């Protein structure tokens, strides 16, 4: 199986396309700050299958090497107990304070990145219409190949729309039909849910079978994973429960033969492209591509972690946990639960000051080393860029989704299987062996609150926490407090409007079709 990490397909390389993309990125983003439109790619680009491959690679490059991952991580983690920012970079402080407004620059970052991705996807979808494909004289096998590319692009568009739905509620809705013509209309959250659901089901037959596509490209299992995640949060998005559907689509993935990797420490390494058993879809990184917008920030950002551990260079001193996170583990180290990869040397447990880099433990979960502990060879001018691929979906999340959906009353699953999946996760955590009973819990201990805590232990710093806390009604309420929540040292409840981010003021002024959400 070839890999998008160093993709070479019949004469084109992702690296060459990436250079072209990075040169043009700023101009595209600046335009999207006003109105999310883009110019249509020339007909010359898409006169061959090779051209479609190049277009596909350009969209993947956008996802990986734009600002998207870093800013989305900030939005999902700094708003919770999972991270406080030393730098307050780009307004991260207002995230943790739960105090943003429509004028806050930070909230526009993910919005713009997602709209930019959707715009590129819309252009590709237009260029893949049946009329244009027929006019360009492709063979039957070429038509099938392009159909798969189009399905992958529709998946990426659905994923970006899910980000907007989850984060902004009722976002603009640019489609291939409105591309380059009029400012997009606004779509209601429940309607966007229905659109994404329909898209993911429609493209299933054109996607590669589970576990057969190139590394970093979506297949059927990726579509099922996004559906299962969306169904788990369906009540948040629509007011209706979809727990039965969450079980159905989680089971479809589980039945495809995925398995947990045996060691948790392998998950976020520089050679984690070896994690083919567990990873369902990744955003790929290669240190030959010279950009800071990669998983660099996940290896270099944690406060205090030295180069000897992260495999790159000294820490940026950028972020740490609140003291509430280590409290979820039996010990703040790997002596019992091997997921407790806390860096404590020189760090204080309690965050007395958000801007003090030594207040709060950090973590060495992300390391640019291989499984043998050797730093990944650098092939760039900086000498410290990351090869760590970021898992968008992995099997452990699917196990946790299945278990939670069962406990929330979904049909078609079983408590016995739910417990088995949770204990596999814990077997790996406690004994580097999913079959071990070392970390087993009993059926009585398997509660919704336990699953929320287990998600925190298993998925920390993987962009899940904000969405999880909202689903449990704990992000804005007083039912769970953490250090500096609401800008109070011991935490406080805030208005429930902060379960969403407002549409940025600049886009409201530029697009008369948009209306702000209540409270902002």
Description:
Mean pLDDT is 92; it is low at 6-41. Helix content is 42%, strand content 4%. A hairpin with a 2-residue loop joins β1 and β2. Among the domains are: 8-207 and 501-510, Serine Threonine Protein Phosphatase 5, Tetratricopeptide repeat (Alpha Horseshoe), CATH 1.25.40; 391-492, Alpha Horseshoe (Serine Threonine Protein Phosphatase 5, Tetratricopeptide repeat), CATH 1.25.40.900. It contains 18 helices and 8 strands. It is globular. By secondary structure, it is mostly helical.
Offer a few descriptive terms:
single chain; 520 residues; mainly alpha; Serine Threonine Protein Phosphatase 5, Tetratricopeptide repeat; two-stranded antiparallel sheet; 18 helices; 8 strands
Task: Explain the layout of strands and helices.
Elements: E1 8-9, E2 12-13, H1 14-32, H2 49-65, H3 68-77, E3 84-85, H4 92-97, H5 105-127, H6 130-135, H7 140-168, H8 189-203, H9 220-232, H10 234-238, H11 243-254, E4 279-283, H12 296-300, H13 307-310, E5 319-320, E6 342-343, E7 362-363, E8 390-394, H14 395-407, H15 415-431, H16 448-459, H17 465-471, H18 505-510
Antiparallel strand pairs: 1-2, 3-5, 4-8, 6-7
């Amino acid at each position: 199986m070839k890999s998008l990490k160093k993709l070479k397909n019949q004469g084109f390389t992702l690296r060459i396309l990436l250079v072209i993309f990075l040169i043009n990125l700023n101009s595209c983003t600046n335009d999207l700050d006003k109105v999310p439109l883009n110019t249509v790619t020339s007909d010359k680009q898409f006169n061959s299958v090779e051209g479609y491959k190049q277009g596909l690679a350009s969209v993947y490059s956008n996802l990986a090497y734009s600002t998207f991952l870093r800013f989305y991580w900030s939005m999902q983690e700094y708003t919770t107990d999972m991270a406080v920012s030393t730098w307050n970079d780009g307004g991260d402080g207002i995230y943790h304070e739960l105090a943003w407004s429509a004028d806050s620059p930070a909230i526009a970052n993910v919005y713009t990145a997602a709209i930019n991705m959707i715009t590129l996807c819309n252009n590709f979808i237009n260029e893949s219409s049946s009329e244009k494909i027929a006019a360009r004289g492709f063979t039957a096998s070429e038509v099938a190949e392009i159909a798969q590319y189009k399905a992958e692009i529709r998946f990426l568009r659905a994923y970006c729309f899910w980000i907007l739905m989850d984060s902004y509620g009722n976002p603009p809705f640019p489609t291939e039909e409105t591309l380059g013509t009029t400012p997009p209309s606004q779509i209601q959250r429940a309607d966007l849910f229905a659109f994404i659901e329909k898209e993911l089901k429609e493209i299933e037959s054109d996607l590669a079978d589970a576990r057969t596509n190139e590394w970093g490209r979506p297949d059927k299992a990726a579509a099922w994973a996004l559906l299962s995640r969306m169904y788990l949060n369906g009540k948040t998005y629509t007011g209706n429960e979809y727990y039965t559907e969450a079980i159905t689509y989680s089971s479809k993935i589980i039945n495809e033969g995925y398995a947990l990797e045996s060691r948790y420490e392998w998950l976020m390494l520089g050679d984690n492209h070896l994690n083919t058993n567990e990873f369902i879809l990744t955003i790929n990184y290669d240190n030959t591509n010279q950009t800071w917008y990669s998983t660099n920030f996940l290896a270099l950002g944690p406060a205090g972690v030295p180069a000897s551990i992260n495999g790159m260079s000294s820490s940026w001193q950028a972020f740490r946990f609140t003291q509430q996170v280590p409290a979820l583990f039996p010990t703040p180290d790997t002596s019992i639960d091997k997921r407790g990869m806390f860096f404590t040397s020189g760090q204080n447990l309690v965050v007395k000051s958000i801007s003090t880099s030594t207040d709060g433990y950090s973590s060495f979960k992300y390391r640019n080393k291989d499984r043998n502990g050797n730093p990944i060879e650098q092939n760039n001018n900086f000498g410290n860029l990351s090869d760590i691929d970021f898992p968008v979906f992995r099997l452990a999340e699917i196990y946790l989704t299945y278990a939670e959906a069962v406990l929330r009353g979904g049909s078609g699953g079983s408590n016995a299987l739910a417990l088995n999946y949770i204990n596999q996760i814990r077997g790996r955590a406690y004994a580097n062996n999913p079959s071990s009973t070392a970390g087993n819990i009993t059926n009585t201990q398997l509660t919704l609150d336990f699953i929320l805590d287990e998600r925190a232990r298993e998925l920390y710093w993987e962009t899940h926490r904000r969405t999880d806390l909202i689903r449990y009604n704990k992000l804005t309420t007083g039912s769970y407090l953490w250090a500096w929540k609401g800008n109070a040292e011991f935490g406080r409840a805030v208005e429930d409007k902060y379960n969403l981010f407002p549409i940025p003021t600049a886009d409201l002024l530029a697009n008369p079709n948009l209306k702000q959400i209540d409270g902002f």
